[in-house]
Amino acid sequence: MPEWIIHILETPEEMAAVEELQRLVWSAPDIEVVPKDILLAIVHNGGLAIGAFVGTELVGASFGFPGFYQTPDGPRLKHHSHILAVHPDWRSKGMGFALKRAQWQMVRKQGLDRITWTYDPLLSRNAHLNVARLGAVCNTYLRSEYGEMLDGLNAGLPSDRFQVDWWLNSQRVERRLSRRSRPTLGLNYFRLAEATLLEACWDSNPIPRPPDEILSLSGTLVLVEIPYDFQALKAVDLALARDWRFYTREVFEEAFAAGYLVTDFVIDEGRSFYILTHGETTL
């Protein structure tokens, strides 16, 4: 049984707790926090806030709202997930996955089949949850999506983001959310499959740096390495963190323009790789 209880958030007191959780998780100044009155207005008009409680303490929350996206037949409704926050003491325990699964259930009951959200593509922990565990896919790169950000996690770098698509009724997502285990594919599997590997440069330095040049993208599979712990790298070398931002910006923009789609994420012996394919969305 889980150590927490999940339920929908609707009251001013609960939204005040969401405010405090934002400050804690992102070391965010008040100007970066979504305030409780806005949270309440949105959830009372079609939005969705979900909380995870240990006793009476809110230790995790997700928040999103309806939006539109364009199709050849005109605008169509989706849900956009804006916040997923987990208290530092409860990370790596499955709470983020549980909150997203509850969101998946509730949004499907609203009759929608797509959730989008953004995240920093250089954060391995987020990539593993969003792509590998939840089954979201991505072919949209957003430059400096939120402008200059002042919180502890984002200050000093352009706020580039992936926008991921979570197709709620797809076999891919239903398999990822099921209790069935997936085979673990390591780096050697992709080497044997003759995937194109864009690997970091390690030299004699334990801190990886971006390659000096971008290899030509070709073939069905492309693997793109990112730092395993980008926040730790940023803390010791902000200039190198900026190099990684601009390198991966160029790689992903080129890949998406060429028709590649992020479909998975692997961590192997302390190294992190995105897997890009040509349009594969079912695995």
Summarize the structure.
This protein is an alpha+beta fold. Helices cover 31% and strands 29% of the residues.
- Note the beta-strand portion: 25-35%
How does the major sheet shape up?
A: 7 strands, mixed
- Beta strand count: 11
N-end to C-end Cα span: 28 Å
Superfamily at the CATH H level of the largest domain? Gcn5-related N-acetyltransferase (GNAT)
Rg of Cα set: 19 Å
Low-confidence stretches: none
Task: Give the helix level as a range of percent.
Answer: 25-40%
Features:
31% helix, 283 residues, Aminopeptidase, 2 domains, alpha+beta, 7-stranded mixed beta sheet, 8 helices
Could you explain the architecture of this structure?
It contains eight helices and eleven strands. 31% of the residues lie in helices and 29% in strands. It is globular. A hairpin with a 2-residue loop joins strand 10 and strand 11. Strands 1-2-3-4-5-7-6 form a seven-stranded mixed β-sheet, sandwiched between helices. It has a four-stranded mixed β-sheet with strand order 8-9-11-10. The chain is α+β, with helices and mostly antiparallel strands and 283 residues long. It folds into two domains: 5-177, 3-Layer(aba) Sandwich (Aminopeptidase), CATH 3.40.630.30; 187-277, no CATH class.
